[in-house]
Specification:
The protein is an alpha+beta fold and 249 residues long. The protein has 9 helices and 18 strands. Among the domains are: 1-49, Double Stranded RNA Binding Domain (2-Layer Sandwich), CATH 3.30.160.60; 161-244, Classic Zinc Finger (Double Stranded RNA Binding Domain, 2-Layer Sandwich). Its main location: nucleus. Keywords: DNA-binding, Metal-binding, Nucleus, Repeat, Transcription, Transcription regulation, Zinc, Zinc-finger.
């Protein structure tokens, strides 16, 4: 009956999202706790839902259960967006995606005025307010707010560099680092200083440049002079200096 009445009596104590079923609330709470009770027997993959595990297992079995009624094509993504033709394995993912076209954002943050187009995006946003960091690196125990950030961090331990420049074959651990690097080939400088209109290829370079206008000197000398600086290279020089002065042993 709640499908017709719209009644949602089960409320999340963390983000105040409401649900019509107790089971849906239990499943949602795993996004906050990080609990993943459904584990793959073939690899280390874990999922918060049984459906997520079933989809993952197809990578091992090669099963493609969705067959086109017009031809013999089989695939894992039967739900297609009629606007941009992007395909999804779960109907709920397609519904969330469609909101990127309609602009609909039904999930509002109770702490600020931000609105999100999916429940998952709202959960991620709420961590900015709560400070929750449920994803932990098993190597160094550093914690993260999002699984994507943890995946990127793990590459610092493995040394894996999956993103390679097609121009000079330099490899990077992150797609974002590759994008910034590619600008050295294209000459693109999308970040502009509002004070002098000088342009930069990376946001970090722009931030450092802005300190020349603001006079900000965030890096303090650790030696007796205690003078400020806006150049991180001075930090590296001071760190290297003791080793250089000590000479060979």
């Amino acid at each position: 009956m709640r499908k017709h009445t719209g009644e949602k009596p089960y409320e999340c104590a963390v983000c105040q999202m409401k649900f019509s079923k107790a089971g849906d609330l239990r499943m949602h709470l795993r996004k906050h706790t990080g609990e993943k009770p459904f584990e793959c027997t073939e690899c280390n993959y874990k999922s918060t839902t049984a459906g997520g595990l079933r989809s993952h297992l197809r990578k091992h079995t090669g099963e493609k259960p969705f067959q086109c009624s017009e031809c013999n094509y089989k695939g894992e993504k039967p739900y297609e967006c009629m606007v941009c033709r992007k395909k999804f394995s779960v109907l709920g993912y397609l519904r969330s995606h469609l909101r990127t076209h309609t602009g609909q954002k039904p999930y509002g943050c109770t702490e600020c005025h931000i609105k999100c187009n999916s429940a998952g995006d709202l959960v991620k946003h709420l961590r900015k307010h709560t400070g929750e960091r449920p994803f932990e690196c098993t190597k160094c125990h550093k914690t993260f707010k999002q699984t994507g950030c943890l995946r990127m961090h793990l590459r610092t331990h493995t040394g894996m560099k999956s993103f390679e420049c097609t121009k000079c074959h330099k490899a990077f651990t992150q797609a974002g680092s590759l994008r910034v690097h590619l600008r050295t080939h294209t000459g693109e400088k999308p970040y502009e200083c509002t004070e002098c209109h000088r342009r930069f290829s990376a946001t970090g370079s722009l931030r450092k440049h802005l300190q020349k206008h603001t006079g900000e000197k965030p890096y303090e000398c650790t030696q007796t002079c205690q003078s400020g600086n806006n150049d991180t290279s001075s930090e590296r020089e001071e760190i290297a200096a003791p080793a250089a002065l000590s000479g060979p042993r």
